[in-house]
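FORM 7B - TANDEM STRUCTURE REPORT

SECTION 1: FIRST PROTEIN
SEQUENCE AND TOKENS:
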Amino acid sequence: MLSSMVKEHHAKQNVRKEIQESKRKEACAAAGELTQALVDHLNVGVAQAYLNQKKLDAEAKQLHTSAVTFSKQTQQWLSLVESFSGALKELGDVENWAKTIEGDIRTITTALEIVYKNSQDQSTSQQ
């Protein structure tokens, strides 16, 4: 009777151990699945952040290229404006020169007219 109780106790203990081992394996499997699900969920966010970063990098490069192009165009425009300004200054200098020459010619013309009138007056008074 005692030996049958011991055998029965060992049998029940073995059954409990098997159940416990089975539940431990199920718990480990469930923990592994949960961990994998969490990692997958985090990886989605990380992957999205990575894609966004790649897009930002590409747009930053494009913006830099556009800025460099704009800077070159601006330098060209500044150069054109400076040369145009210089040409305008030269035109102003030419205009001033022309006005000076015109004034000198008027003075000479007036002087010649006075001399001519005086010579005409003298020749009419001599006759």
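SECTION 2: SECOND PROTEIN
SEQUENCE AND TOKENS:
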Amino acid sequence: MDGHQQLTVDVVQSRLRRFDLRQDGRLSAMFPSNQYPHIRRCATLVPLFFTPHDHELHVLLTQRAATLRTHASSVAFPGGVQDPDDEDDTHTALREAHEEIGLQPSDVTVVALLPPTFVRPLSAVYPVVGFIPADFQPVPNPHEVARVFSVPLRLFVEAEVAFLPFSVEGLEFRSPVLIYPVQPDWQARIWGMTCSTCMLVARAVYGSRAGPGLLTSSDHPGPEDEEDVFRNAQTAYHALCQATRPHSRL
């Protein structure tokens, strides 16, 4: 992959195409909608934009409100549970982004729908990657969002990322963690599904960098390219969904 090619919305979309559930029938067949009835279907928006002054690709993130019942104060994408009236995952992601940060759905150019990630306790989260206006001014819903900030996407292939172990139903995995100084008095702790998704998108856009894998049970992972990273994430998703089935026995 030519990492020096000028990035545009079209270039990013083309680099994500082979991981887009809407574009690849074989990939979408791996995630049938009724495969895991006990898992809630959710969607998040992965909001990308180019900064006007240097054309650097950024991803917009939120810090969830401290009063929320789940994942309080965590760094996350805008998103939530699919409503019965939602047409599809894109509808869910755009609706939630409007509710949480005031982003108009008509201002988003969707470029990919990525495979789902398992999020505890029992959710399948489908990331919808979309471009937003560079001059977008967030209006956070204080009941859901404490703050909104952005991070250069390139950091997710170039910066130091730690990996923390976690277990679900006896299965051992490692979750990536990236610390990013947003303000002098606050550092964002980007981890879990949010960090994993940023790493996946960054590797697809920028190409591989030598470093550990994304989410794996291996104690000594080696360098991986973006294909391996996506494959590992898919394997982890199915393993976790199967392990949390009622009375499941692997």
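SECTION 3: OBSERVATIONS ON SECOND PROTEIN
Residues 11 and 42 are 27 Å apart (CA to CA).
Confidence is low (pLDDT under 50) at residues 210-223.

SECTION 4: SIGNATURE
Preparer initials: ____
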